[in-house]
Design a protein that fits this description.
The protein is of the alpha+beta class. The chain folds into two domains: about 45 residues, Pemi-like Protein 1, Chain: D, CATH 2.10.260; about 35 residues, no CATH class. The protein is about 30% helix and about 25% strand. The strands form two sheets. A two-stranded antiparallel sheet has the order 1-2. It has a two-stranded antiparallel sheet with strand order 3-4.
């Protein structure tokens, strides 16, 4: 999909709706802008996924879904962190 857009006086461009929808971009979505010689590249700025404790349950937040292997690794890292805390070896719960 291609489009030609115009920069307004404030330096803004509008990404066409079909492109925003196809990429899942909404108001407030963050984009990384990279310049390479005479080219600009826009990419979604997706934070690294991580597990967060919410009401006693580990929840995946920020980012695309984890692979099964990455999910297992994140759970093991969280378990190790909690075991160090319970054993008194760390101040981080």
């Amino acid at each position: 999909m291609n489009a030609i857009v115009e920069i307004d006086k404030a330096g803004r461009i509008v990404i066409p709706k079909k492109m925003r929808d196809a990429m899942g971009l909404k108001a407030g979505s963050r984009l990384r802008v990279e310049q390479s010689l005479d080219e600009l590249r826009l990419e979604p700025d997706v934070p690294e996924p991580h597990l967060e404790m919410r009401d006693g349950i580990l929840v995946l937040v920020s980012g695309p879904p984890l692979s099964g292997e990455d999910a297992i690794q994140s759970i093991e890292e969280d378990r190790e962190r909690r075991m160090r805390y319970v054993a008194g070896l760390s101040n981080e719960p």
